Amino acid sequence: MSVVLVVEDEQAIAELIALNLRHAGYQVQVAHDAETAQRLVDEVLPDVVLLDWMLPGQSGLQAARRWRADSRTRTLPIIMLTARADEEDKIVGLDSGADDYLTKPFSTKELLARIRAVLRRKAPESLDTVIEVGGLRLDPAAHRVSFQSGSGAAAIELKLGPTEFRLLHFFVSHPERVHSRSQLLDRVWGDHVFIEERTVDVHVKRLRDALAQAHCTKMIQTVRGSGYRLSVQVENND
Ligand code: CA
User: Fold this and answer.
1) How far is the CA of 61 from the centre of ligand 1 (A)?
2) Ligand 1 center to 27 CA (angstroms)
3) How far is the CA of 60 from the centre of ligand 1 (A)?
4) pLDDT (tens digit, 9 = 90+) per residue, 54-111?
5) Which of 47, 56, 98, 214 has the fewest CB atoms within 10 Å, i.e. the most exposed one?
6) 3-122: CATH superfamily
7) Is 0.85 topped by the overall pTM?
8) Where are the domains of the chain?
């Protein structure tokens, strides 16, 4: 069950949100200020934070910035709640590290849709679910990767090192999107901030070498000047 932390100083609003979320099957924690929210986050990382912009004491913006600066909470999904509809404020909110933005008043339906969306975006590579993309099948629990070129073809088991496995896991969880080297370092290598971006290239090469066993090297594409992408729309890109 996903845990949602609601940080909102207006008690009636906080209670209403909590009630609706519990009804939708979420486990809910409520904090009425950023300091209490920090204590709760220190104890257990929630799956999503609904963070009110205007709070007594430390603002929601400051809390979001602090969480983004801390390696433990860097990828914590944050949805900012605000009474401001100003486009400029929205940009500031998203710049501070919020994943999404909801302007009050919002419907429960809209709130639930946004929560589901950030959970989908943030969670897949941390789960043990088997993922299949374009014939590639990755089983995180068994730590196995195989490739099947067509429905009648035999599946070929691929041998991958641990870093290549994590890298591929990230790619298959976010297919058809370009990831920069620094994004890959952030999401695959995590807190190892001293690793050079060149390391990504080394492991991408090893991953391609591993995929060559099944002739699916071209699924990992270099996007000039931007980074790498896993795509099932294989073009002759090299
Ligand atoms: Ca408020």
Assistant:
1) 12
2) 22
3) 9
4) 999 999 999 999 998 888 888 889 999 988 666 677 777 777 778 888 888 899 999 9
5) 56
6) Response regulator (3.40.50.2300)
7) no
8) 3-122, 131-230
Distance CA(230)–CA(201), nearest Å, equals 14
Q: How much distance in Å is there from the Cα of 54 to the middle of ligand 1?
A: 4
Tokens 């602090």, residue located: 66
Architecture of domain 131-230: Orthogonal Bundle (1.10)
Distance CA 211, CA 205 (A): 10
How far, in Å, is the centroid of ligand 1 from the Cα of 117? 24
Query: What does each C-alpha distance from 124 to 81, 157, 187 come to in angstroms?
Result: 25, 22, 12
Rounded Cα–Cα distance for residues 57 and 50 (Å): 17
C-alpha pair distances (Å), 234 with each of 48, 173, 206, 237: 35, 17, 19, 8
Q: How far apart are CA 84 and CA 106, in angstroms?
A: 12
